[in-house]
Amino acid sequence: MLYVRFPLSLRNVEDLLHERGVDVSHETVRFWWHRFGPMFASEIKKRRIEGMKSSRWRWHLDEVFVKINGERHYLWRAVDHEGEVLESFVTKTRDKAVALKFLRKAMRKHGRPEFIVTDRLRSYGAALKEIGAADRQETGRWANNRAENSHLPFRRRERAMFRFRRMRSLQKFAAVHASVSNHFNQERSLSSRPSFKLNRAAALAEWRGLCAA
After folding, report:
1. Angle between the 193-212 and 167-184 helix axes, to the nearest 10 degrees?
2. How many angstroms separate the CA atoms of 181 and 7, rounded?
3. Cβ atoms < 10 Å from Cβ of 11
């Protein structure tokens, strides 16, 4: 949890555990993350999909540049109106075919939304037109701030990891990071302190339940 949730390196986690009396190598932390991270993320995502009927209202789509061994790749992300990351998808290009594949993958898991907010990338318009959803697209200068802001936790985590070396590693980490971030994101600014503390405690208890299972 420490490694995925916070912008920490493997050695940072090793030092934090050492202060708590747990003597493990950073390579052990790496093994834990590769072994158990996807399992926990998959279970969290499954539970949230079952209870997120409102996610079909408005989606925000955006893509960010990510360097892998010095080469530019694209991380596509679908975010709902509350900032929940619904889907992450890594590609080498950002043309119509890729946009179409990304949209179909997201809609297959979460259903078809009523509105889809995008930037002015033409690939979105062409892909939405092909699947018959062009009338649901919305664009605007600040309309997609929800998606832009959702990139910030990932960007902070990317800097701590000193970038990525393979597409597969990026895809795996983006998916796990999104699920864990969704789980612990309590929208602190929108709730009172007592409500925030209760929600945070509930999220931590559920996480510990997953670990115990």
Report:
1. 130
2. 12
3. 11
Q: Give the tens place of pLDDT for each residue, 120-164.
A: 899 999 999 999 999 999 987 778 888 888 888 888 887 777 678
Nearest one of 168, 187, 182 to 4, comparing CA atoms: 182
Taking the whole predicted model, whether its pTM rises above 0.90 is answered as: no
Cα distance between the two ends of the chain:
15
Residue 64 to residues 45, 73, 75, 93, 147, Cα–Cα distance (Å): 22, 8, 5, 11, 10
N residues, the chain: 213
CATH of the domain at 66: 3.30.420.10
Total domain count for the chain? 2
Question: Taking Cα atoms as reference points, which of 110, 105, 107 lies closest to residue 90?
Answer: 105
On whether the CB atoms of residues 195 and 44 are closer than 8 A, the answer is no
pLDDT tens across 168-195, in order? 888 888 888 888 888 888 777 677 888 8
pLDDT (tens digit per residue) in 115-125: 999 988 999 99
The secondary structure of residue 66, as a DSSP letter, is E
Domain ranges, residue 28:
2-51+179-212
